[in-house]
Amino acid sequence: MRRGHVMNWWGWLGVLLAMFLPVAACGGSGPEMSGVGGDTGQFRIAVVPKGTSHDFWKAIHVGALRAEQEFGNVEVIFRGPEREDNRDQQISLVQNLISSGVDAIVLAPVDQHALVPSVRLATQSGIPVIVFDSGLAAEAGTDYVSYVATPNVEGGRIAGRRMGELLEGRGRVLLLRHAEGSESTMRREEGFVDALSDFTGIELIDPKRYAGVTTATAQIASESLLTIYDDVDGIFCANESCSFGLLLALRSRGLAGDIRLVGFDSNERLVTALEQGELDGLVVQNPVEMGYLGVKTAVDHLQGATVEILQDTGVTLATRENMHDPAIAELLTPDLSRLFER
User: Fold this and answer.
1) Which of 53, 157, 273, 331 could disulfide-link 284, Cβ–Cβ 3.0 to 4.6 Å?
2) How many CB atoms lie within 10 A of CB 317?
3) Can you tell me the distance from the alpha carbon of 158 to that of 161, in angstroms, rounded to the nearest whole number?
C-alpha cells in the first residue's frame, strides 16, 4: 500500500508541473496576448499594403523599415497583394498572418467592407490592427486600434481648388474615378467635387467611369472617355496609376499640356511630366511617414502606451513652381534606397 501511495503522489506532481510550467514560460506583462514578442523578445509586425508595385507602397515599406531600425526589437513582415483590386488575396494574406501568430497587423484595406471580418477576427484573436492609408467600415478603437492616413477629403479639395484656379472659374472638367470600394480615393473624389462646386462657371462631367488599378487599365479608360468627351478643359484623377495612365492617353492624342491635368501621388515619370508642364499639379502624401507611424503605433500599443485613434500624416500640392523646394522634393521623390540595402 505504501508503494502505491508514493507512485500516486509522483503522478499528481507530474500533472501539476505540466499544467503550470507553460504558463510560467509565457510570463511577462503588457497586453493580454499570447506569445507577444515571441521567443526572441522581438515584436513581429506585419505590414499589409493594398499592392506592392506602385512607388507609393515602396515608400510605405521604407517608412516601416525606418521604424524597425529605430526600435530594434521589431521585425517587419511586408506582404501585400500584387494588384490593388485583389480582395481575396489580401483577405487570405491577413488570415494567414493571424494563423502564424504575428504580434500586430498594419493594414491598408483594398476594400473598406471586404476586410472588416478579417480585421475583427484578428482583434478577437488578440492581434491588434492598425489601419493606414485607406479607411475601413468598422469602429476605430473597437474593431481596430488606430487609423493613420492622409486627410483624403482635404487632398481632393486641394485638387479641386487648383483646377478651379487654373481654369479661372470657367470650363468643363472631367473626373476619372479610381476603383470601387477604395475608401481613400473615394474620399479624394468627394473632396474634389465639393471644392469644384464653388466655381459656378465650371461644369463637372462625372460619368462614374473607373480607371482600375493599373496604368494600362487607366489608359484604356482614359482613351475611351477622351473619345466621348473631346472638348474638356481639365481632368482629375485620384491616384498614381490613374494619373499616369491618363497622362499617357493625353500624350497619344497630342493633348498633354493643352488640357489641364491635376493628379494625385507621384513617381519619377509624373515628376518629370510636372517639370515639363504636362501636369499642372500633383497632390502628394507622405507615405514614408505613414509607414513609419503605422509600425510605431503598433509598437506603442503593444507596450501598453495610449495611442491616438486618428493620426493625420498631411497632404501637399506640388506644382512646377514649388517642386524644387526641399520639403516638396522629398515628398515627390522619397529615397527608396533602403529597400535595396535590405
Assistant:
1) 331
2) 16
3) 5
- Determine the structural domain holding residue 92 and report its residue range: 43-150+287-313
CATH of residue 221: 3.40.50.2300
* Cβ-contact 83, 214 below 8 angstroms: yes
Task: Classify residue 145 by its DSSP letter.
Answer: S
Number of H helices, E strands in the chain: 12, 12
| pLDDT beneath 70: ranges in the chain | 1-40, 342
Cell numbers for 204, please give them: 463637372
Task: Note whether residue 266 is domain-resident.
Answer: yes
For the entire predicted model, the pTM comes to: 0.86
Neighbours of 30 (CB within 10 A): 11
Beta bridge partners of 283: 264, 317
Give me the pLDDT at residue 301, please.
98
List of E strands, 152-299: 171-176, 202-205, 234-237, 260-264, 281-284
Q: How many CB atoms lie within 10 A of CB 320?
A: 13
- Verify that 253 and 272 share a domain, yes or no: yes
**Which grid cell sits at 46?**
506585419
